[in-house]
């Protein structure tokens, strides 16, 4: 009898020599870890998931009632701004389980088992595997004997409570804080000509006669815009987890900014009581009416693959259709409509391109108010598994309604990003080759001999807090058993800062210095998960290890680059450090285009005009 054992995170004593597949990367036998099969068949599995998202949209919009609810107006579409459609593995970690489930179905089809034994504490995962078994007429044993009682009433009540809590927090944050530091002068409107839409992180104030705002996302590019277009407006998008700290620390400085040619505003300054009230009404109208649409779960079945993704994506569906994501999408549409209807007609808009929901509301409102061209700047790297970047561009460019939510151009910062988009059918005439503004600072260190200790290790956190904590935990297990004496330093991701507990991480020092100072005094850089800091460290000729959480897939921007060293647990960390096996030496020209004079950007601006 050909049987399969599926284990989430418990090593199996496989006396009967059955086929064992582990959900997490815990087996020393690579063939037993589902993630390895996923990586070996990455193009096929990614295609299946993207095709599922495309088909889900088509099937949902066959229902005229659903279509009417989610087509906000002829410019904005709320489903296209949903978490499910966004496909971000960081915001929606269950996407990783969806990809593994598609991999598992392929393995089951290949092995043709008569019995599947499931070891998992994750009820939704077990439910998804049982669905495959039932479709394929395979017997199964659920070792944990889960009860699949229908908790819909409780679940829906909790989702409504969470939505109300989110709305209350949103009101408190934006009416009590941002109003305190109002930058926008409604009597003057915004500056004419160009607007940059950018996150309110990674910046500093430079006091050179007058106070100047300097964003590390944009290098010296804003000065080029002022020289070419004369007037520039900044529209800042705060990150929720840093808003209070940001404005407490820098609120007074923001008030002093601005001159005859440069203006600043925070997007939530354009939130009014009328916008808030109408957003709440619209939110509850959609949420209540959606309850009358039946059999939504059937739309999540991948028919040809005998898979349902409903148990895994149900939370994202709730957030997208009657939860925090829906409310956020509605209110951002209204805020951008309000702001962009008041300011003078802009010749050019530029924003950070990551295909998030606020970007789609920005683009649609921009075009609705008949401003000029708008450019999305792919400011980081485009990772293979960051599915936000992989829309069906070929179809969307032909469909005028879908094209409304796409920028006129996308600026790519290197060969790696350009090739990734072209492979996904992004039209080449819509791509602009430009310098990697966020990483242009690396040129300042290119020819410097930086002094550092050979045995100093810097741990760099991820945007995903869980990945960062797991990395720190695995290093704690390692420190006492290392054959070489190392010192350890830690620096949080700027978009998701954490404070170390000194009683737990006794041997790790927390750094509050600048990124460049911190990275330069260490010789070995360990980067968690998806962070592009791995590329920066390699360009600065550092030795690099990338930590991939055992439950994760390889979201590193270097996943398609050869000879990169990865670790997922303390044993692998120990081996790499004791034997000094590191990633090093990278051809930076194959990753980013860097040039202090920003010649590519100047050429791109001529093309746009």
Describe this structure in words.
This protein has 609 residues and is of the alpha/beta class. Helix content is 40%, strand content 17%. Strands 9-8-5-12-13-14-15 form a 7-stranded parallel β-sheet, with helices on both faces. A 6-stranded parallel β-sheet has the order 18-17-16-19-20-21. It has a 4-stranded parallel β-sheet with strand order 2-1-3-4, with helices on one face. Helix 1 (34-40) crosses helix 5 (94-111). The longest helix is centred in the N-terminal third of the chain and has 25 residues, at 152-176. It is globular and about 80 Å long. The model has no long low-confidence stretch (mean pLDDT 86).
Terminal residue distance? 69 Å
Shape: globular
Uncertain spans: none
**Beta-strand percent range:** 15-25%
Q: Radius of gyration, rounded?
A: 25 Å
Based on helices, strands and strand pairing, what is the structural class?
alpha/beta
Strand order of the largest sheet: 9-8-5-12-13-14-15
Number of helices: 21
Fraction of residues in helix: 40-55%
Question: How many distinct beta strands?
Answer: 21
Mean pLDDT: 86
């Amino acid at each position: 009898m050909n049987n399969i054992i599926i284990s989430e995170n418990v090593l199996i004593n496989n006396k009967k020599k059955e086929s064992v597949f582990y959900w997490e990367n815990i087996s020393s036998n690579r063939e037993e870890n589902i993630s390895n099969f996923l990586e070996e068949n990455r193009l096929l599995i990614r295609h299946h998931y993207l095709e599922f998202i495309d088909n889900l949209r088509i099937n949902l919009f066959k229902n005229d009632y659903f279509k009417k609810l989610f087509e906000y107006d002829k410019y904005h579409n709320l489903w296209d701004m949903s978490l499910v459609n966004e496909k971000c593995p960081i915001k929606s970690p269950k996407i990783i389980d969806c990809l593994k489930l598609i991999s598992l179905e392929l393995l089951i089809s290949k092995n043709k088992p008569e019995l599947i034994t499931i070891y998992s504490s994750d009820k939704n995962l077990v439910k998804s595997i049982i669905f495959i078994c039932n479709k394929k007429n395979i017997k199964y044993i659920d070792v944990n004997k889960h009860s699949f009682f229908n908790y819909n009433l409780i679940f829906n009540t909790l989702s409504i409570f969470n939505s109300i809590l989110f709305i209350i927090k949103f009101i408190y944050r934006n009416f009590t804080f941002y109003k305190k530091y109002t930058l926008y002068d409604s009597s003057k409107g915004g500056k004419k000509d160009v607007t940059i839409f950018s996150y309110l992180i990674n910046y500093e104030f430079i006091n050179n006669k007058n106070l100047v705002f300097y964003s590390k996302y944009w290098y010296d590019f804003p000065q080029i815009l002022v020289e070419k277009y004369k007037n520039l407006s900044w529209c800042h998008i705060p990150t929720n987890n840093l808003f209070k700290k940001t404005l407490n620390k820098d609120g007074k400085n923001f008030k002093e900014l601005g001159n005859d040619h440069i203006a600043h505003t925070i997007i939530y300054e354009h939130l009014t009581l009328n916008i808030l009230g109408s957003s709440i009404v619209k939110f509850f109208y959609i949420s209540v009416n959606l309850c009358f649409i039946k059999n939504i779960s059937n739309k999540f079945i991948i028919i040809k693959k005998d898979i349902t993704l409903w148990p895994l994506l149900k939370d994202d569906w709730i957030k997208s259709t009657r939860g925090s994501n829906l409310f956020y999408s509605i209110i951002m549409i209204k805020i951008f409509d309000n702001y962009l209807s008041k300011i003078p007609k802009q010749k050019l808009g530029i924003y950070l391109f990551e295909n998030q929901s606020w970007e789609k509301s920005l683009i649609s409102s921009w075009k609705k108010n008949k401003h000029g061209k708008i450019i999305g700047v792919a400011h980081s790297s485009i990772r293979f598994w960051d599915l936000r970047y992989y829309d069906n561009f070929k179809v969307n460019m032909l469909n005028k309604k879908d094209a409304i939510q796409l920028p006129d151009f996308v600026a790519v910062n290197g060969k790696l990003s350009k090739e990734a988009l072209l492979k996904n059918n992004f039209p080449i005439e819509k791509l602009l080759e430009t310098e990697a503004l966020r990483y242009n600072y690396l040129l300042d260190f290119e020819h410097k001999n930086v002094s550092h200790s050979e045995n100093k290790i810097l741990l760099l956190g991820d945007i995903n807090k869980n990945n960062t904590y797991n990395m720190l935990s695995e290093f704690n297990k390692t420190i006492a058993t290392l054959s070489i004496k190392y010192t350890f330093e830690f620096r949080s991701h700027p978009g998701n800062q954490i404070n170390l507990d000194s009683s737990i991480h006794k041997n790790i020092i927390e750094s509050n210095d600048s990124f460049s100072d911190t990275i330069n005094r260490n010789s070995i850089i360990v980067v968690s998960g998806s962070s592009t800091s791995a590329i920066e460290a390699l360009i600065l000729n550092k030795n690099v290890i990338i930590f991939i959480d055992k439950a994760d897939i390889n979201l590193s921007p270097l996943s398609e680059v050869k000879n990169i060293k990865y670790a997922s647990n303390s044993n692998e960390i120990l081996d790499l450090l004791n034997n000094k096996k590191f990633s090093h030496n990278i051809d930076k020209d194959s990753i980013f285009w860097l040039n202090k004079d920003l010649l590519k950007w100047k050429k791109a601006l001529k093309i746009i005009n």
